[in-house]
Specification:
The chain has about 300 residues and is mostly beta strands. The chain has 1 helix and 24 strands. A 5-stranded mixed β-sheet has the order 2-10-9-4-6, with no helix packed on it. A 5-stranded antiparallel β-sheet has the order 13-12-11-14-24, with no helix packed on it. A hairpin with a 2-residue loop joins strand 9 and strand 10.
């Protein structure tokens, strides 16, 4: 009887010891700082005509380089110029890290504007934060048209075609080497001349432009109020291709010929009757002209 009682007492003591030490061991795993490690996407070059990009991938670690599970990682793109959009059609995307502490911004799509694309990355976990940036580049493919002007011949331009590109960008300057073929049979351009180069990039598909005042931001996201054939309001969810300040280019949600309310009132709803007085009070969304990038 004494033997069983002694064995039971020792087992209970071991069990209590295990329960007491368990919280202490868990406390040791709490991070004191966060670090972001870029795994993929840094320095990637993307063809502006293909409108695709290399997905950024990061890992969030603690001070001991152990992965953090469940950290919130926010990827943010520029609002204008060389930029893009995520799969949700927005400029920012929030991803929770997986069991490996990794977060991937999937289905990143670039707009057809050449240049440096900085992607800002912010991570947060239980009051701790960290930030970094991933730089990608959108480059022109061979065959793009170029218009060249030189100070020695004011008012005159020369046509050229991109023959080859380095397909890489110097990170320190954000520039790329490019070979452009120009008809210079008249020998008007000389070696060493300074020149201004405009590179034309044809938009992929139909890109529509509307006044920025037409945008509606609410809990449902981004939308635009249009007027249908029966003179009633129809709200359409849209995504932005490029923000030019007073004008925005629409990537999706509108079609050519849509009548857009330039300054919609607060709380405008589907089905609201619209009466046009005098000059039309709506803008007609039209296809944007081919973009021209200055080099």
């Amino acid at each position: 009887m004494t033997t069983y009682l002694e064995y039971w007492t020792k087992s209970l003591a071991l069990g209590l010891s295990f329960l007491i030490t368990l919280p202490h061991a868990h406390a040791q795993t709490m991070p004191t700082e966060l670090n972001i490690v870029v795994l993929e996407g840094e320095g990637a070059t993307n063809n502006v005509r293909q409108r695709v990009a290399r997905d950024p991938v990061v890992r969030v670690e603690d001070e001991n380089h152990k992965p953090i599970v469940g950290a919130a990682v926010v990827f943010t793109l520029p609002t204008e110029g060389a930029t893009g959009e995520f799969a949700n059609g927005a400029k920012s995307l929030t991803i929770m890290t997986d069991s490996q502490g990794q977060a991937t911004a999937q289905s990143l799509k670039m707009n057809p504007v050449a240049g440096k694309v900085p992607i800002h990355v912010n991570a947060s976990y239980r009051g701790l934060t960290a930030r970094t940036s991933i730089t990608q580049f959108s480059v022109l493919p061979p065959g793009a048209k170029a218009t060249i002007s030189v100070p020695e011949h004011p008012g005159k331009t020369y046509s050229g075609t991109v023959e080859a590109s380095a397909q890489s960008v110097t990170p320190s300057s954000g520039t790329t080497l490019m070979q452009i073929i120009v008809d210079n049979t008249a020998a008007e351009m000389m070696p060493g001349d300074y020149a201004s180069i405009h590179l034309d990039v044809n938009p992929v598909g139909s890109v529509l432009s509307v006044p920025s005042s037409a945008l509606i931001f609410d809990a449902k996201g981004l939308s635009i109020a249009t007027v249908d054939g029966s003179q009633h309001v129809r709200l359409k969810s849209v995504s932005i291709a490029r923000d030019l300040g007073t004008v925005v280019e629409i990537a999706s949600g509108l079609v050519p010929g849509d009548r857009v309310i330039e300054n919609p009132p607060d709380g405008v709803e589907n089905g609201t009757a619209v009466r046009l007085i005098g000059a039309p009070s709506v803008e007609v969304a039209g296809s944007a002209k081919p973009r021209s990038n200055r080099g």
